[in-house]
């Protein structure tokens, strides 16, 4: 297995973890972290798969840089919304209050 | 664009544009609104006059326009179209006059007259449609434009009537749409052509053609109120009297009956439809509707409801005429398209007069009204006698042609149906006439709104239209051989459809 | 330098970016005027571009003169120009409406709308997959921002759900891009189309699967629609209009591009899948709209249903019908009609002070223009003639019957009947007489709000009478 494929395989693993987190977790900050994990996974797949031939390919590097910028922006927006949600309703999840209290206790 | 292309479009525009202008006009601009309304109606009649002269001289009028690839909007003003167009346009003028008097102090008149003009526009489109797609477009437009009129009063009953109307007509529209697309798939075109388009095509499954016929006839049958698709018509009678006139005589039920005529004669072709065995079931459905409508009318205490069931029965005379294979039956059906319109609008105008002037809504409140409102009652009596098929009225002409047709087509049962219907008509109209003329005046009217003013029993705008149509009812029979009469015109159309002079 | 700026292509992306940034700096007052004039210029650019594209079929532009693959190639063909025209034609009246409608949210509305439109226009002009990803993300972020401009707690929750769904969707898309780049070393749609044949390796199948799934999530196709009704129904009316009319169309456009381009060789046996989901969307969305109690929720569920029609065309590709044109016609008709309906609904809610459907009682006599707008939009959504919606649905039934897909025809007709139930359920209330106990005192609404909605609704109707230019524009598009 070349190093590129290894990167890609690890990326896939991170991706699966990330998607699982976004979909299944309750706490908003955890979900946002999971989204970042998912993004990193995809970037690894992108860089890893492109470098199988051994030589450095600049195009995916440029793409990943752009992708990182996008995901930083998305994270910032998500965190702002999560803070707002907390300020409005004191809740750190998207569920309504009754259900959240069931979960926490 | 040539003159012959422009003329049908102008006929449509002559009610569409006034409609748009009326929508925009503020409520209080009564004079301006009335002016545009009448201007549109008179212009339309004049344009139709031009068309009539041209068509009798053998001119072709038509217009084609691509909406999308393989979807063509086609108008053609042929003799059959003109029969319907001239009926609707003349009655539109009268109904507009009537409505101006009837709604004198009612709210939302801009909206009312705007939609009224749209309804007439849709009817013109239906009449002059040159293919099934165009027919469908205006058929649905008619549904949309009548809804606000039916619910115009804004009462819960009006809402119920409007909802029932929509449920029936939109469902019927869906059936019609499927039928049209399906037929288009099989034949590649759905243009209305003399003698039909199907006889010339080979290799189409006859079962499929029968199914499509069922879909199409069910689709137009909803508006024509063929049993069991008639449920909306008695519900819709809660609308103001001019709207009832529109529904029963000018536009809606006529559009359905006209659709039956177009589909049978110009899509299937009368000979081909006969060879598929489709005419007999159609005639039977019509016969059932005729009897059912008359029977139900007997037990209605509400005057307009009784008239509504009477319409269900009378409109199917037209369908029966189509179902009777042969020239005479068809002439009877076509001429009844016009005659029924004239007679039924007279009755609804009069019913509106009784309601507006004296607050009479029920049959048992009509005692002695003939002495209080002699002119209205005279018009009502002529209309009712016409419905019964009494001599010297338009109804007699239709019935005699229908009976001749039934004899020629060896359908003696149809004659029995027509006679039974005449008897039933007498059974539900004669008691009204008896009450009108022979019963003594009551102590007080239910709700007298317009007092007697010299010889004028009610508002003159309410009086004039029924008088005109009552006179027309008699004239259509007395002068049935004149070159301008509906009968002459119907016979001319028959000559074209059957390729033989009748 | 000059020749790079002389094409309307670039200005369609630059203009909104410029006025959005300036509006952010200048504040809502002058920013709004700048935004409105910018939108006017954009509409002009889109029309110029359409005139340029119509005879040549395709117009391309290399941004800054840099060659591919590091440079960005902008491509405009009939498909993209149609969507661009729709976008500018809807956003101008919506922005006018917003100018008069929004009170507190103005400060954020103009910059965010500018970025949203830059993203949408950029997406339609992209010639490569990665650029599509970036614009999809830009659209998603700006749209989420717009949903919360009202600032209510419900909007924040809806926006958060929307954001997470959107991020997962574009994540799936980016994974697909990564896989395709790994296989072929390019992200150019044109090159990929020629490289991917009918025998696709597993990685390409996987890429197609995650990209399509991600795009369906962003398009809110049933059963991925869960995020749409609260976001579209909860946002302020002009923003709902932008989201429902334009934003969901963007991801649908990408789906269409991929389906007709790189994936065309091998996905056609699976075309029934999106169509099946579309059918369920039509039925489910229709039923939910009938059951809705709040007016804007009803309109939002109607969007769920109408999006279903867009994907019903997928089994009809390659059958000799005008499947792609039908899809675009439906997208255009829905865009115009839905924007008109959301704006009208916003006016009605504002005037009556009630979000419930009952608030519309007796409005026919009091806000006739708005009610007309609502009704005319409804006519197009129901697919009744004459309207763009009618043409699309008629042609869809026709094309479906031609290849024996009777079920599609049945779904289309049923969907139309469901739509007529939910539209007339609202309209009939409006005609109730003044004596009705549900009548409330009216808040004043501006004429601009009434007439912008009306113009949009009327254009949906007029589209039904003048659709031939659209068909001519789409004639040369592959697929």
TrEMBL record, chain A:
Primary location: membrane
Name this protein carries in UniProt: NADH-quinone oxidoreductase subunit K
EC number(s) per entry: 1.6.5.11
Annotated membrane topology: Multi-pass membrane protein
Ranges of Basic and acidic residues composition bias in the record: 96-105
GO molecular function: oxidoreductase activity
Keyword presence, Membrane: yes
Organism: Geomobilimonas luticola
From TrEMBL, chain B:
UniProt-listed InterPro entries: CPA3_Na-H_Antiporter_D, ND/Mrp_TM, Proton_antipo_N
Domain NADH:quinone oxidoreductase/Mrp antiporter transmembrane: 129-423
Keyword field: Cell membrane, Membrane, Transmembrane, Transmembrane helix
Compartmental location: Cell membrane; Membrane
Keyword Transmembrane attributed: yes
Keyword hit for Transmembrane helix: yes
Lipid bilayer topology: Multi-pass membrane protein
Positions of transmembrane segments: 6-26, 38-57, 77-100, 112-139, 165-183, 211-233, 245-264, 276-295, 315-338, 375-393, 413-438
Name the record gives this protein: Monovalent cation/H+ antiporter subunit D family protein
Organism: Geomobilimonas luticola
Upper taxonomic lineage: Bacteria, Pseudomonadati, Thermodesulfobacteriota, Desulfuromonadia, Geobacterales
UniProtKB/TrEMBL annotation, chain C:
Segments forming domain NADH:quinone oxidoreductase/Mrp antiporter transmembrane: 126-417
InterPro entries named in the record: CPA3_Na-H_Antiporter_D, ND/Mrp_TM
Membrane topology of this protein: Multi-pass membrane protein
Superkingdom of the source species: Bacteria
Subcellular location: Cell membrane; Membrane
A Pfam family per the record: Proton_antipo_M
Keywords in alphabetical order: Cell membrane, Membrane, Transmembrane, Transmembrane helix
TM region positions: 6-26, 33-51, 71-96, 108-126, 132-150, 162-182, 202-227, 239-260, 266-286, 363-384, 404-427, 448-471
Family: Belongs to the CPA3 antiporters (TC 2.A.63) subunit D family.
This protein's name: NADH:quinone oxidoreductase/Mrp antiporter transmembrane domain-containing protein
